[in-house]
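Our consortium's second objective concerns turning raw sequence data into structural hypotheses that experimental partners can test. To show how far this objective has progressed, the report includes one record in full. It was chosen at random from the queue rather than selected for favorable results. The single chain below, 429 residues long, was entered without modification.
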Amino acid sequence: MILIVDDTPENLFSLKTLLQINGFEVDTAASGEEALFKILKTTYALIILDVQMPGMDGYEVAEAITGYSRSSQTPIIFLSAVNIDKRFVTKGYASGGVDYVTKPFDPDLLLLKVKTFYRLYRQTKELNDAHANLEKEVEIRKETEKLLYENNLYLEQKVLERTAQLQRTNEELKKSNLELQQYAFLASHDLQEPLRKILTFGNIMLDGDMVKEEGKSYMSRLTKSSERMRNLIEDLLQFSGLSETPQFIFSSLNEIVAETLTDLELVITDTNAEITLNPLPAAEVIPGELRQLFFNIIGNAIKFSKKAVRPQISITGETTDQKSFSAPAAEEGQFVRIKVSDNGIGFDEMYLDKIFSIFQRLNGREEYAGTGIGLAIVKKIVEKHSGLITAQSTVGVGTTFILVLPLRQHSEKHGSFTPPLIQANGEQI
């Protein structure tokens, strides 16, 4: 909006009409006092100010306008028909004016000046607003950065405190685990000693004539229960011993499986089991634990075979470049995927998660012996080797256990590795 200040009504009307015809919004004041009152309430883009007025003249009004912070940047054009001498023009500029136009004026020239100063004011105001917004945003960002810095310091302190706490807890757990292991070994020794005596004397009494015929069934139950307790103690010791510090050794998996089959030789002979071993690569493993793993899986395959059906077990392996059950085989892969398949009784896959839990059984103890710890041990060994394990099974058809193990521990950090294949005999054992 443009403010016109003139004490002559005719001048106000003519100048207002000229500006309104050219699209400007116009306000008027008939004196310097009225102009100052309006400036207190309204912001103007341009002021056209008459010099010769009763009361406050134009110079005094201009000085008051530029002294007021709200209107200090508003451009002022002086209009005068009397004070046209150079000294009055100079005084006008000194009072805060941006131009000095004498009457009578050229309407086109005045209109050109008005448009120019109006546009300059609007552009200056937009720049000032943008600058103010930028300064405000900079302050906000500074405050945000300060808060982020303080929060980061707080979080770092909390992380350090939490890390120290976890380290202390870990040390306490290590100490507690060591004590528990020591206690378990001592307790197992104390428990196994009387069990050995019960089994020894029980078998002597069963083999001889010391027990009457009607008491032999009770004695047989006693020895079987003692045998189950001994197996349970041994399995629990095996399970608890897996928390010890691992010693990984680059080993032939074929040799480990062959050693396992030697340990199972009696049960393989008794059941006439047919076991086929195909090539397996060498890998960085804990040999003793891998032997226990294969012992439990192959032993389960023989144990859960179908009655009057010869157990057939196949052990195969292939390398893959992904830690996955279904990734394609890759000759230079960093993982080995091992499958142990059998033709046993199988199980419903809805119980897949259950079979790897400690003390979980899917079959009755009377029908199939066991402690329910074997596959829990297998899973713990696989996890200790940073591997994966699952099973696929169909009731009445058989089961396939699938293991995925890294050929090198932390191989993801050390880059690719091509293991040498161990020559397998491929023969049936």
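The partners drew two points from this record. Confidence is low (pLDDT under 50) at residues 364-370, 411-429. The CA atoms of residues 184 and 237 lie 7 Å apart. Both points have been shared with the crystallography group to help prioritize constructs.
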